[in-house]
Amino acid sequence: MKVRWMPESLRMRITPSELEMLLDGQAVAQRIFRSSGWGIEVKPSQETELILEGEVVTVKLSHADIKRLGEPSREGIYFNSAHEPSIRYFVEKDFPCAHERPPETGEPETETFSAPEGFKARHRQP
């Protein structure tokens, strides 16, 4: 799972294997600094909600929302938190990057979804 933290939003991009885990009722987690430090967990639940506790963010997704995310034509699911100030949070499928990564990043290649029809045109740089 790739995570992007912004002041007013939280974006998670999941791989096909991670989507399968969610569809099978399993949680997906990511932690910075290996075993300690900030962490995020996305897990199936009865209701969708964002929970901020200490150094861990928990995104609970309802079974209906996980099913929506699993639809082949859907790129992601998008929400606003119930607490104030509101935080936008979303879980998206991880598609291939539109541009090459510089080798200096040292990031490994990861599993991605096949881009749906029209994806590249919608995400083309101006």
Q: What fraction of the residues are assigned to beta strands by DSSP?
A: 35-45%
From the spread of the alpha carbons, the general shape counts as globular
Q: What value does the Rg take, in angstroms?
A: 15 Å
- Helicity, as a percent range: 10-25%
Please mark out the parts with pLDDT under 50 across 5 or more consecutive residues, or reply none.
Answer: none
End-to-end Cα distance, whole Å, is 28 Å
CATH level 1 name: Alpha Beta
Please, how many domains? 1
**Overall SS class:** alpha/beta
The CATH architecture: 2-Layer Sandwich
Order of helices and strands: EEHEEEEHEEH
Total strands: the figure is: 8
CATH topology: Gyrase A, domain 2
What average pLDDT do the residues reach?
87
How many individual helices? 3
Q: Largest sheet, if any?
A: 4 strands, mixed
Strand order of the largest sheet: 1-2-8-7
Task: Map the helices and strands.
Elements: E1 2-6, E2 9-14, H1 16-23, E3 28-31, E4 39-45, E5 49-53, E6 56-62, H2 63-69, E7 76-80, E8 88-93, H3 119-122
Parallel strand pairs: 2-8, 4-6
Antiparallel strand pairs: 1-2, 3-4, 5-6, 7-8
What does the model show?
With 126 residues, the protein is of the alpha/beta class. It is 15% helix and 36% strand. The protein has one domain (2-122): 2-Layer Sandwich (Gyrase A, domain 2), CATH 3.30.1360. The protein has helices at 16-23, 63-69, 119-122, and strands at residues 2-6, 9-14, 28-31, 39-45, 49-53, 56-62, 76-80, 88-93. Strands 1-2-8-7 form a four-stranded mixed sheet. It has a four-stranded mixed sheet with strand order 3-4-6-5. The protein is globular, with a radius of gyration of 15 Å.
